[in-house]
Structures are given as structure tokens and as C-alpha cells.
Amino acid sequence: MFMGDTYMVDVHLRGVVKRFGKTIALRGIDLDINDGEFVVLLGPSGCGKTTTLRIIAGLEKPTKGKVIFGNREVTYLPPRERNISMVFQSYAVWPHMTVYDNIAFPLKIKKVPKEEIDKRVKWAAELLQISELLNRYPHQLSGGQRQRVAVARAIVVEPQVLLMDEPLSNLDALLRVKMRSEIKKLQRRIKVTTIYVTHDQVEAMTMGDRIAVMSAGKIMQVGTPWEIYNKPANVFVAGFIGSPQMNFIDVTIEEAQDGINLISSDFTIKLPQEYISLLKDYVGKTMILGIRPEHMYPIGYVPASLQKKDKIKGIVDFVEALGSDTIIHLNTGSKIIVVKTSGTYRPKIGEELEIVIDLDKIHLFDKNTEKAII
Amino acid sequence: MKGKGNVIISWIILITFAFSALFPVYLLILNSFKTRSEIFSDPFRFPKDFSFSNYIKAWGYADLGCGLLNSFILGSLSAVFTTLIAGIAAYALARRARGSSYTITFLMFCNTLPFFIVLIPLYVWFYRLGLTNLIGVIIISVGTGLPFSILLLRSFLLAIPKEIEEAALIDGANKWQIFWRIILPLARSGFLTVGLLTFLGGWNSFTLPLTFLTNPDQQTAIIKIYNLTGQYTSPWGQIFAAIVIVSLPTIVLFLAFQRYFIQGLIGGAFKY
Prior knowledge:
Chain A is of the alpha+beta class.
């Protein structure tokens, strides 16, 4: 909970388009973010996620479209009239000010009384565990500590919306994991509407209440981490989320007596009867079959609970032993299929392997639209 | 071995340069305490007794008090106005205001233009405007110093990441607050360098005040020293003493701001 009252607000983007000269950065963004929600904008470099965040912040004006906070349209308001805070990738702490002055700066600008400033700065510093650093200058701090200062400065004003632009990307791997959970806990504690930009899918999956996956200036899917992982809306989302990446295989749909056959150049997978109604429009056509590496099992490692399954065969082409997991690259003839299995399993290169596929976890995408059908 | 050799060569070069710079200063100070005959008999010899009579005479005859005050007014006002105007202009150019690239090209052109080309036309204009006085000299000093100062400060401000400013903008600061509270302190050494260079330029300038300042009450210290020289004979002891007096404030100023000055000249080389 914030020190005083909470001022959460819901954020809405309506048809936001942004052009930089001839380049179109955003091609019509529609997004609704509920108050107190932690939404992650996820996507590869250049997909428009930072531009979206900067438009919400008021640092960029959209070419078209609206930005609405609660019932108030803020599209053309300057940042200071939006009651927001932002944590930048480079932290952007001011090197000539002490930690205390950095955190106090937004309050001083707002002409908050001195005693109140002192109270709030100490509250934010305590929350971020940097109370003992208040008299230091940024050059005397580590990257992680500077990051905490930036977050403290962002929350001290009790913003309606907290914006974070890849705040962890400059930290080392271990510190990133630590700060990930700390930021998430902090957000839960102060319940501020948070929009977080990252290209790191692990960050997005672990931190976001919902994730908006973006590509080429468009939102490809908005959903909970579970939905994004288990029910990807299209080939892009399916391929972007998950490591190693989902296997994509072109298959022809053929109706059989007791089900549907998915025929690829190397193997045939048989789906049970219940899929007939779902795929009847695609019979005779080519679709994209998507199977996650972790939803395929070598014989002997198949979970007992698996009900709908089928097998494919291949030759082990390459093995990556990661300790906890083993990644097998299986040559099925004309394709390499990646399988992720237990770290205790170590097949030999050149060995023939039979792999069981969990049919409940497969995805089928329309070849033309790349949209998910199953 | 190679490293040690390099160090020795560096030292030899540095000592040679230091000697060639400091030896004339040594001679200047030494001879400022000598009588006229002592200077002409052997300029390298120590004086028989260190007498301040040259200093006292120079102060009186050259009216150095008035000259130093005028030099200070010229240097400091030029420095204040140049830094202020150059700072604002450099900030706009560093943040790519409309027409920045054309302005930068124009400033570079101005920077390469020899001052003597415009001296006579300027004198004619300023004479007509009644500005052949200290105010006129200050205006011209500021004007001629601006191109270099703007370009120097711009390179300094370019090194400040945009996010540093945007963070302040998000926190509610307006453009002026950002300039005064964030940009100015961060580019402090750049601003101090421009200020110091302009002050020294004004303090040491000769041609401009010599041309424009005909009223003795407005003449700067350098002109006052020049006035000591005669057509057939010059009081060298007094001239040397006056030069020492006039040099002292600039040496003190440089020593006081040396740290910022060096930082300013390597502007942008440190990380934010």
C-alpha cells in the first residue's frame, strides 16, 4: 500500500498509430490495462514496444489514436500532467545529485513541503532497501543499487501509472533474477498500474499479470502468461514464447476412418475423432503443426498421465546437455525436430529414437493467416 | 623497457615545452625588479636589490587601477553573456532543433572567418551607433566568441543522454527547470571552460579595444600598458611590472578553475 491514498487508474490505448517520417512504428494499437494490473509489453527489438510506452508517458505524440487514463484523455498532455513515473533502461539517475536528492527531485518540483519530502524519501528508500545509501552519489553505487534508486524515485510521487522500459537489461544475470521478483513484490505491495517493456520472455512470463506480445508495430496477442504459452494466437507468438522455440512442421490434413491424419514429408500423426469437426474446412489443405520441445518424450520418459499420444521416429543429430535438461536435435528425414527432456537422459548421436508426442498440447495454424486453429 | 623509454622521451618533450613557456615569464618577472640600466646591461642577471619602484610607477603612470577595472568589466560581462547565450543555443542545437545542421555549418563558417576582415566595417557601424566604447567592445566580444563557444558547448551537451532529461520531464520539470537543474550542473565544466576562455579572451584582447576605445577612462589594462611605450624610448622596467600585475588575476583564475578547465577541454569523455 502507498503511504497515502492509492490512485490506481486503468489505461486504454485506442487505435494508436505512430509514424517517424516514412517509417511506421505503430500500426494501430488497442490495449486495455486494468487498474493495479502489471502488464508486460513483450517483443523483439524494433517491434514498437518502447514507442508505445513513450506515447503512454507523453514523451512521444501519436500520429493517430488516443491514450486514456481512467475517464481522462491524455493523448496530448505533457508528461507532468499525467501523474506517471518511469524507470529507464539506463536508470537515468542524475550523477550530480545524491541518492536523497535524486529521489526527492520530483517532490521538490511539485513543491511538496520539506518534512513531507523527507518522510516520503525515507519511506521509498526503506522499501527499496537503500536507506544507508541516501548520502552517496550515483558513481559510488553498483548497477543494482542505481536501479533501486531509479525505482525509488519513480514510486516516491505515488504515480497513477508506473512505466518501466527494460529496467533490468543492464544488470548481470543473477541480479536480474533477484530484481525481477523484488519489482514484482513491490508492485503487489503498492498496487500501482504498471506497464513494463522487455524483450526477455522469462521476465515477461514471471512478472506480468498479462502480457501483450508485439511484432512489427502490432499487438499479436494479449493474455495471461498461461494463455500466451498454452494458447498462442498465431505462429509469431507460438515461436516467440518458449525456449527452445516451438517446432513448426508443414502438414497436410487428411480425413481417416477414425480421425484425422497430419501428413508431413517425414511422418504421419494421427489425431482422434474429436478433431474432425475442428479441421473439416482444412481437409486436403496444408497447415502448420506446432509442437513445443517439452511436449515430446523419449520412450521411458513418458508421463503416465499422458492420454492422447502418437509417435515419431528419427536419428539423433545433436545433443545439448544443460544439466537439468537435455535438448535433443532429432533428424526425421527432411527436418530437424528439437525435443527437450530430462537431464538424466543422454542419447548417443546417430542413435535411432522413438519420440512420443502429447497430442493434447499440439497446435495447428492456418498456413495463410498463421492464426491458431487448435 | 620500451615503456620506460617512452616515459623518458615524454619527460624530455614536456620539460622542453615547459622551459620554453616559463623562461620568458622568468625573465619578465626578473627584469620587472631591475632598473633600466640593469635591464640593458644584462637581462639574465639577478637585480642588485629587489625594488618595487617599477610596480609603483607603472600603477601610477599607466593608470592600471582604472585599466584593470575596465578589463574586468569587459572580461566578466563577455563571459556571462557568451556563456548564457551559447548555452541556450548549444542546448537547442544538441537536441536537434529545426534547422540545426544549417546553423552548425554557418557557425563553423563564422569560426573560420578572420576577425580582421570585419574589424573596419564593424568600427564604421558602431561609430554611427555611438558604440565606440566599452559596451560596444563587450557586444563584439560576445558576438565573435559565440560560434566557437556554441560549438564547444554543443559537443558537451551531446554527451548527456536524452534519458537524463526525459527522466526530469516525467518527474514534472519544465524545460527551464531541466536546463538549470539538470543540464547546467552536468555540463558545468563545459560552461566554466567557455566562461574562462571568454574572460581570458576579453582580458587579453588588444586589437579590438585599441580600435574602439579612444576614451582613456574606458581603456583596458592591456591598452594602458601599450600606452606606456614611447615613440623613441620605452620604460621597460615599468612595462614588465605592468605585465606582471595584469597577468596575476588570470593566473589565479586559471589555477582556481584548472580542474574544470581540463575536464571542459576533454568534454564528453566521462560516463554519466
